[in-house]
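User: Predict the full complex structure for these chains.
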Amino acid sequence: MSKGVLATEKRGIRELGAEKKVGWDEVPQGVILNSFDDVLKENVAHIKPEDRNYSDFNSYTATVASWRVLKPVYNRDICIDCQNCWVWCPDTSIISRDKQMLGIDYDHCKGCGVCVEVCPTNPKSLLMFVEAEDNEAALAKWPEKKKKEK
Amino acid sequence: MAITNIKNLKEFSTTNERFEGAHLLCPGCAHSMIVRELMNATDDNLVIATNTGCLEVSTAVYPYTSWDTSWIHIGFENAASAVAGAEAMYKARKRKGTLKDPDAPVKFVAFGGDGSTYDIGFQWLSGAVERGHDFTYICLDNENYANTGGQRSSATPIGASTSTAKAGRVSYGKKEKKKDMVAIMAAHGAPYVAQLAPNKWKIMAKGFQKALETEGPCFINTVSACTTEWKFDPKDTIHLTDLATDTLMFPIYEIINGTELNILYRPKNVIPVEEYLAAQGRYKHLFKPENKHIIEKIQKDIDERWEYLQRREEAKV
Amino acid sequence: MAEKFELNEVEVWDGNYAASQALRQAQVDVVAAYPITPSTPIVENYGTYVANGYVDGEFVMVESEHAAMSACVGAAAAGGRVATATSSQGFALMVEVLYQASGMRLPIVLTVVNRALASPLNVRGDHSDMYLGRDSGWIQLDAFNAQEAYDLTLCAFKIGEDMDVRLPVMVHQDGFTTSHKAQNVKTLTDEAAYNFVGKYQPYEEMLDFSKPVTYGAQTEEDWHFEHKAKQHKALIDSRSVIDKVLNEFKELTGREYKRVESYYMDDAEVAIVALGSTVETAKYAAKKIREEEGIKAGVVSPRCFRPFPFDDIREALENTKAVIVLDRSAPMGAMGALFNEISAALYTTQNRPVISNYIYGLGGRDFSVKEAIRMFKEAKANADAGYVTTPIQQFSGVRGPKLGFFETKRGK
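Assistant: Here is the predicted structure of the three-chain assembly.
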């Protein structure tokens, strides 16, 4: 299980399909799903994800980490906080707060590689490595600035 | 309506996400890029309806929902009607004073793929727009019935190979042209219609904001590059979308009140469509010598349409 | 604020007008509807009330019946009172959404003016549309006349919206025979009617943003069964709430309705089972044959046929000797649906009366007292013989050579 980067105790805590298989008497009437436990005290758009009381019915509590073959590794030293990766991540897995990149949500990242492609820095601030690679080791192998091909 | 600051991407990035991860969309799917842009463009409460399709089927499989707003799926064709009914209920309850929070701003949005929008749900969308409900309909156009394995829809462009209009020894794929939904919706009298693309995030976010802000039924067609059915590597979704917009295969424009057409993006260098076609497996067969004339036809259609859009913009009709 | 409508204590209304008045008095928040014969006047009348300020809810004239029910589902999920009306082809068109509405446990009231299903095209009354929706998961009540169309529509809201039920409810009435026949209808004042129905109580509503809710999720083989089983149980259990509401209605008006109606059944030897206006014809015939020929005839109707009153039907019929079940829908290769359901219940009794089936009245073909009397006599012959003396399934009122299918193997 991957943690860090603003992970809460509810984020990515179970694999899809691993939820408890309850009986007809315990499933919600009308197959209705509530996104949060309890009543929200203000507009959810004003509450940071790490401060929300996600219900177990929210996919936030599931993880798709097992989908990955490759994973993106984030290099804070090179990143210019342009937010390209944030806007184009299909899995809400690029975590940015106060206009600053914080890193990857590895519970929800599927390893699609879009973030690497849209990163404008040279060398890139995100690169794909095999899933088993240690992030620190990956950072140590970071390539040098690429010369522009004529 | 409370819109998000989209002065630049850094400002935009300070929004709090309302679309959660661990959904079942393919890695690299543009659908969720578009959904996130919509949901981050405003912080108004949203009531969202979605037709059966990739988005619906990937974000609401019991026991999980990826939606942090109220959301409803009924069937394949009727998201527009669902949202029309919800909007009518909102009006009724506001008038009767039975809303829990009557001052809370709310926007009604419907999502549908091209299959549900152009084909099976066409009547439902047409009816809702004709009746003038205050909602925004966003079509996630990946030019095929992706959820069921890539069958042709009336949004599939000419020459594309799909599982039911396949390229083979005696066929070059789809023979019919793509239906022009934006024109059809503008002809309904919708106050705001547009075609937008997620790679041009700012134009898309602005367009979404404009649609949400405009009273009445608004329609937005969005290009959603599909890694699985267009057959390209998941990491290249934005690159494909760049090709789509820069070849003018997907021109980005808006029509206001059916009479004012504005082109919202003019590529610095217009790329020949061949480069776009070459980047996707579904057009691979067009590069056989006997099919080359289809590529020429596609280019000719693009040029003619671009000419039309420019002339109409100039003439202000 | 909606204007009040001054009504006489007794009005002369047809079934359509009665239903539309009930919808008005219930103060529905959203009616999304489409016109189709013979239910069109319900929608037109409602439109007239809207135009003259008697309704302050929304009235959405959609572009098809499928869209009508779809908009009703969206509106119901948004937390308010919802209703619509349709018939026949329109009903068939919205069947997909009927299942979706009940699966989502949304209270919606649908007044169905029963009409035959094409092909061939027919606008008159029979029960083929009613039968099409049998498994759709809705509570279904049947009105035999205009008074009942009014009364049961008001009850329908109260039943469906009950927190222990939360299911959509249909109120059926015969096309033309009831919907277009003006009869005396005793009314309630706007105030009394609305107070009976009560204020709508929202539950898991999309417009409560402090509790975002997802409707219409997908379930695969690992979850589907549990959800459908739960829904089925809710339908079966709704019987107690239906009884409770019908009882409250009796307290208010003196008019008593039961989920199974029995007429002259105390000592009945033979019985006709039917739905719709035919019940009144059969009642009249039963009375006549008792007076004139001393045959102990009675009539039973499963007025609330969903949830099917399995045990109440048994109780009503188990002491008879012969039963004839009338089906007003073309069964297409099988016994009539009502015959099948009644037979299943009677099969589990000690006594097991003999039971046979008549298909009648299709496409609005009239059904007469004379024919009902003839059927009672036939039932008496069956009762005396101890077995069904005719083919088990017969057709009543159709021209041409006599149609009969399957002979009994029992008792001959």
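The first strand of chain A starts at residue 14 and ends at 15.
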